[in-house]
Each structure stands twice: as C-alpha cells, then as structure tokens.
Amino acid sequence: QVQLVESGGGLVQPGGSLRLSCAASGFTFNMYVMSWYRQAPGKERELVAYISSAGGSRNYANSVKDRFTISRDNAKNTVYLQMNSLKPEDTAVYYCNAQSPKYAYWGQGTQVTVSS
Questions:
Q1: CB within 8 A of 112, min separation 6: which ones?
Q2: SS3 state of residue 110
C-alpha cells in the first residue's frame, strides 16, 4: 500500500522557519522524483520544488527560491522541505508528490499558516 505522510506544518510568525517531512512507503522511493506542491485557499495547486531521484538535481518556484530547500534521504524514504524567511503568502496546504514515468502519488497535505 502506497503512503506519503507529511508532517511538520503549523502556525509560524512571518520571518520564521518550518521543516516539512514526507515519509514514503509502498513503492521504490529512490526511483521517483519527489516534489512539494502547495495550494492556498481559492488558488490552484502550484509546484514549490522538486528533487531528482538521486538528489542531484533540484528546482524551485521563483517565489520560494533562496528561502526554501528541498532534500531527500533515500535510506529513510523521506523528503524534506526546509522553509526559511516565511511570508504570509506562503500560507497554504503543502502536499508531497512522488512521480515516475508511470505513476504519481500524493500525500494528504499539511497546513502551513504564516501569521502574526
């Protein structure tokens, strides 16, 4: 059974930091590109960052570049999103995604709220 379980969300003040984790099981983790998406109320889901299967390639949305860092630990079947200098506009539900040429899996999401 495939599972992607996100954790680490919460309420943080502007300028603060959070680290999201996504624990994967039920598939061959190190063969999948892993991504973080987010969806704010009333907006479409958008790609935040992705990392290649071996971790050698990463890419970020312009809105989070230089503030967020995606990483993965293939020994632990986990992908992370370190979020620094958070802004109110980063408020959203953050989703973990696993992608291969044939399959795509999603987590249930974790809420991140940036507010004073």
A1: 9, 10, 12, 18, 20, 38, 83, 86, 90, 91, 92, 93, 94
A2: strand
pLDDT one-digit tens code per residue, 6-33:
999 999 999 999 999 999 999 999 999 9
C-alpha span between 36 and 79 (Å, rounded): 9
Position of tokens 């974790």? 110
Instruction: Please tell me the distance from the alpha carbon of residue 62 to that of residue 8, in angstroms, as a whole number.
Output: 23
Residues in a beta bridge with 33 = 99
DSSP string, 53-83: TTS--EEE-TTTTTTEEEEEETTTTEEEEEE
